[in-house]
Design a protein that fits this description.
This protein is of the alpha+beta class and about 350 residues long. The protein has a domain of about 230 residues: Aminoglycoside 3'-phosphotransferase, Chain: A, domain 2 (Alpha-Beta Complex), CATH 3.90.1200. Helices cover about 45% and strands about 15% of the residues. The chain contains twelve helices and nine strands. The strands form three sheets. The chain has a five-stranded antiparallel β-sheet with strand order 1-2-3-5-4, with helices on one face. Helix 5 runs antiparallel to helix 8, helix 6 packs across helix 10 and helix 11 runs antiparallel to helix 12. The longest helix is centred in the C-terminal third of the chain and has 28 residues. The radius of gyration is 20 Å and the shape is globular. About 40% of the residues are buried.
Length: about 350
């Protein structure tokens, strides 16, 4: 790591290292404090350490990169594409030759959630800016033939079904009625077909209030390495429903923000609301399954502590969707809902 920093700033001294909170991935983050060096040497930089070249779980499931995996880090590949279309990404200062580490611009410690919930903050304005940025990014991020990995994978019927199965396998009590589970699978298969028929655009995939930072009055976007093609409202649903976000984004504010996005993106508001509900329901079911998987299989109990917020969101969207009575009932009677712990938030 020291050699990686010195390659970028030969005259700088490493004055200190401190851990930075990460997320569900195999990546770890450190903040390096730097002294001296050339005029372009920042006071701090972020060091990302990777256990492997890692791609998203479903990317592996779809085998889009073949048995040997991607040729380069997806983070670097997607960054190269996006950085020509927005200045919201952190700069990549250096990447290790073996792809086990990279040095990034430090975009601070203020996720969008903290900015929106700070005393005196205007949540509608904060989240609205994030939606404006998203709409602009979607409008500019067309495939240019440069080899961006996002255009090699998409939320198609197969992937939607895979994520629904992930929910059934890990999010529901295995002792639930076999008949109810069979009907749930049939309902979600039909929903996967509806979702797969929607037009697809460039999608961050985890565009939520902890992957957006407010840094020196600018919104900065991180964790974009799992980008793919998906319905346009998927990232909107991610932003407005992830984790504890519905504590802040009530139905009235949600409706206002969806209208703002629709106007900025140039899509009919009624179509945006319908697609939003479908995407939000699919995504929150995936999250219920994923958080249980992370807690039970990967040994990360903090994710189980978020489920008491996530499960009510799943029930709310189940009530908005036609044709899912068995799924709706299982969300009431057989879902694994975790236990609350404020420290996990």
């Amino acid at each position: 790591m020291r050699s990686l920093l010195s390659q970028r700033w030969p005259d700088a001294q490493l004055a200190g290292l401190e851990g930075v909170r990460g997320d569900a991935s195999s990546r770890r983050y450190l903040r390096a404090r730097l002294d001296g060096g050339a005029s372009d040497c920042p006071e701090t930089a972020i060091v990302m350490l990777m256990e492997d070249a890692g791609v998203a779980l479903s990317s592996d499931e779809l085998s889009v990169f073949g048995d040997d995996g991607p040729r380069e880090l997806p983070f670097v590949n997607v960054w190269r594409f996006l950085s020509t279309r927005t200045d919201a990404l952190p700069e990549i200062y250096r990447v290790a030759d073996d792809s086990t580490a990279m040095v990034l611009e430090d975009v601070g410690d203020t996720p969008l959630w903290d900015a929106a919930t700070a005393p005196g903050a205007d949540p509608e304005a904060v989240f609205g800016r994030a939606l404006d940025l998203l709409a602009d990014l979607q409008a500019s991020a067309a495939d240019d033939g440069s080899g961006c990995y996002a255009f090699k994978q998409s939320f198609d019927e197969r992937l939607f079904r895979w994520e629904f199965e992930h929910f059934i396998e890990y999010g529901l009590d295995p002792e639930a009625s076999a008949g109810a589970l069979t009907e749930c699978r049939a309902e979600l298969a039909r929903l996967a077909d509806r979702l797969a028929a929607l037009p697809r655009v460039f999608c961050h995939r985890d565009y939520h209030a902890w992957n957006l930072h407010l840094h020196r009055s600018r919104i900065r976007v991180i964790d974009f390495q799992d980008a793919l093609l998906a319905p346009a409202l998927y990232d909107v649903a991610s932003l407005l429903t992830d984790r504890i976000t519905p504590r802040l984004i009530d139905p009235s504010l949600e409706a206002s923000l969806i209208t703002r996005y629709a106007q900025h993106a140039g899509v009919p508001a009624d179509r945006a609301r319908e697609e939003y509900n479908l995407c939000a329901f699919q995504r929150v079911l995936k999250v219920v399954g994923r958080f249980n998987f992370l807690a039970e299989v990967k040994g990360k109990p903090a994710y189980a502590a978020m489920l008491p917020d996530v499960v009510p969101t799943a029930r709310e969207f189940a009530a908005r969707i036609d044709g899912v009575p068995a799924t709706r009932e299982l969300l009431q009677s057989a879902v694994k809902a975790g236990q609350a712990r404020e420290a996990a938030l």
